[in-house]
């Protein structure tokens, strides 16, 4: 049996304020194998993004991991100091954020960000890193990728920025890709293109896809975990979960996706 790339064991994430710790995510347990896409689906506020940020070591100061463990390729990472976690993030973990326009530095070119990440994690020369940055943008089928390497984020369309964000996340061939609502701000045609791109690019790595849209998860995910009020209430292979949902909240999600409901009927 193939060892999981990502293993999350009984993870609890808390908000900490003057009233004391308040759990936002409770008992999160999941695994993702190489080449597998796991979709985490739920309504806004269910704990999806908080879970992803905890796994990537990106929790803001007001939040903390209260219990449990996160293991990447068998090694525990949730208790690492930030300097060590920075070497893993961008290297062994790539992250695609929901809004690339606000995630990119507006005064930095796309290429300069890729070059910086490649040099930091691979130790290449500036020229070799730039050549690799262009190659990564070409892999994302970004039109005029040679020119895009010198483009600023605002000069690209929404779909192009998201492709550039995926290129940055995959620049160093990470073992795990975390994609947090990667298609929410895009029109349906571009959504399908980005989802197809993600599915193609994660064939040899694990992917955690965060989305509120069950239709998006159904299009690309091998398995789906449904979150509700900070807990995973149901998980299973995509076809089985959609065809025979066991939890009331999963059934309600299906009611919001008529095309899936008809397919499952």
Short characterization:
The protein is α/β, with parallel strands linked by helices and 265 residues long. Helix content is 40%, strand content 26%.
Describe this structure in words.
This protein has 265 residues and is of the alpha/beta class. It has twelve helices and ten strands. It has a six-stranded mixed β-sheet, with helices on both faces. The protein has a four-stranded antiparallel β-sheet with strand order 2-1-4-5, covered by helices on one side. Helix 4 (110-122) packs across helix 5, helix 5 packs across helix 7 (158-169) and helix 7 (158-169) runs parallel beside helix 8. The mean pLDDT is 91.
> Helical segment tally?
12
Number of strands: 10
Q: What is the structural class?
A: alpha/beta
| Helicity range | 25-40%
Largest sheet: 6 strands, mixed
| Overall morphology | globular
**Content of β-strand:** 25-35%
Low-confidence stretches: none
Terminal CA distance reads 34 Å
- What does the average pLDDT come to? 91
Main sheet: which strands, in order across?
6-7-8-3-9-10
| Assembly state | single chain
Radius of gyration (CA) equals 18 Å
Please write the string of helix (H) and strand (E) elements: EEEHEEHEHHHHHEHEHEEHHH
């Amino acid at each position: 049996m193939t060892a999981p790339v990502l293993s999350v064991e009984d993870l609890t994430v808390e908000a900490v304020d003057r009233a004391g710790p308040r759990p936002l995510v409770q008992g999160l347990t999941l695994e993702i194998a190489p080449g597998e896409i796991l979709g985490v689906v739920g309504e806004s506020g269910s704990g999806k993004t908080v879970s992803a940020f905890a796994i990537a070591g990106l929790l803001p100061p007001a939040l903390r991991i209260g219990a449990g463990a996160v293991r990447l390729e068998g090694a525990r990472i949730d208790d690492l100091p930030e300097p060590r976690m920075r070497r893993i993030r961008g290297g062994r973990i790539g992250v695609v954020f929901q809004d690339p326009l606000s995630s990119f530095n507006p005064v930095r070119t796309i290429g300069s960000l890729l070059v910086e990440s490649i040099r930091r994690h691979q130790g290449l020369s500036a020229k070799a890193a730039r050549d690799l940055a262009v190659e990564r943008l070409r892999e994302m089928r970004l039109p005029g990728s040679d020119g895009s390497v010198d483009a600023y984020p605002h000069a690209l369309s929404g779909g192009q920025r998201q492709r550039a964000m995926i290129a940055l996340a995959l620049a160093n061939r990470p073992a795990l890709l975390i994609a947090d609502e990667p298609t929410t701000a895009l029109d349906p045609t571009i959504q399908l293109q980005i989802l197809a791109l993600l599915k193609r690019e994660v064939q040899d790595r694990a992917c955690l896809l965060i989305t509120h849209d069950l239709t998006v998860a159904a299009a690309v995910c091998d398995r789906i975990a449904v979150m509700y009020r900070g807990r995973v209430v149901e998980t299973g292979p995509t076809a089985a979960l959609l065809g025979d949902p066991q939890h009331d909240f999963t059934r309600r999600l299906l009611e919001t996706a008529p095309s899936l409901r008809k397919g499952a009927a």
